[in-house]
Prior knowledge:
This protein has 435 residues and is α/β, with parallel strands linked by helices. It is built from 18 helices and twelve strands.
Amino acid sequence: MKIILITPGTGSYYCGVCMRDNALATELIRQGHDALMVPLYLPLQLDETSASPDTPTFFGGINVYLQEKFPIFRRTPRWLDSLFDSGALLKLVGKRQGDANSEVIGRTTFSMLQGEQGHQRKELKRLIAWLKTQEKPDAIWLSTMLLTGFAKELKRELGVPVLASLQGEDEFLDNLPKPWNRRSWEMIIERSGDVDLFISPSRFYTKLMAGRMRLKPEQLRMIPNGISVEGYGEPAPPPDPPVIGYLARMRKEKGLGLVVEAFMLLRKRSGFENVKLRVAGAMTAADEIYTAKLKAEIDTAGLTKDVEFLPNIDRGEKVRFLKSLTLLSVPATYPEAFGLYVIEAWAAGVPVVQPRHAAFTELLEGTNAGRLFEADRAEELASEWSQYLSTPAAAREAGLRGREAVLKGEYSIARMAESFLTATREVMAGTAVAS
């Protein structure tokens, strides 16, 4: 089967959506299928080898911005547009993403959801023209529901089914300025009928988005995320002294501040004076400001030498980071659709401590590979950490249960790829049903 995966790139920091799609494409190729990743906006920033390294970037971020702001750029010739699609220039823009005006982001999001009727319609025509020069695919997979506006024209011009993933876009949409948040949701609901099947990574998110998008049961399928375990090897011995880890974008919404607060509380408890904290993950220019404030709090508490920050690490560094941990926590404050970092920790044999909400509850209750605490309570998070730190054998067993779920269970990349293919075949045959 030939599959086209259309995925937004970040240009300057590692993105979980990009890495998930790249792992999926790589696994499809390993299974003997033809998978091609097509990046949008900015070049893909991956922590492993790209499955499609030579594919051009479409909807270049600069052109998308100019076409939204200035009507003249909606009619400029391709030779002029191509100047703004330079890879080096797009990467430079990626480093300044935090500078984007929220009003422009809102307007652009709505316009992109309009697809062939939006201000970037000539970019959609260019993408379709290029796809027609390739071998015809059996299906197209859109990486997020924010690309729903593409589905109608892709199906009309290429004559193939279109599937789209749901990966936590609701937080982004809800935070758009008014009226663009409301108008974007309305456009997604209007355009959702153009997508043959939506894929959600968890039962929690399936139920949430079925309601918010007004989807019928047959329009939605739950397929858990999976990851590649290449390079992980066997779990490392537990570190001494113990190390608590955080692996996600370094921002407030992911719960980094709560982790720092809980760590400082834990260090005041008898018996935990030697525990360390290691923080890794994507950091943009905007995130540096927030992180600097946390570092100042850590320094005031006299704990600077016991906390390490590792921004924008690659895959090899990430694996070594995970294997250096006793446990991992990413206490996201918003309703997380899945949490790829959970199964990344499990792949290294590391248990997790997560909030009792969103997708985390089903992940942990289904595997018994971690502990849950009441969201947003630093004191309780520190207490749950202490339970694992006081019983290292129990922590080790929990981590190994998680590892088994990633290696051979429902969170393996092989099972994820097979489930996507099954869903695609059913759509092609007209037999897809909810699951």
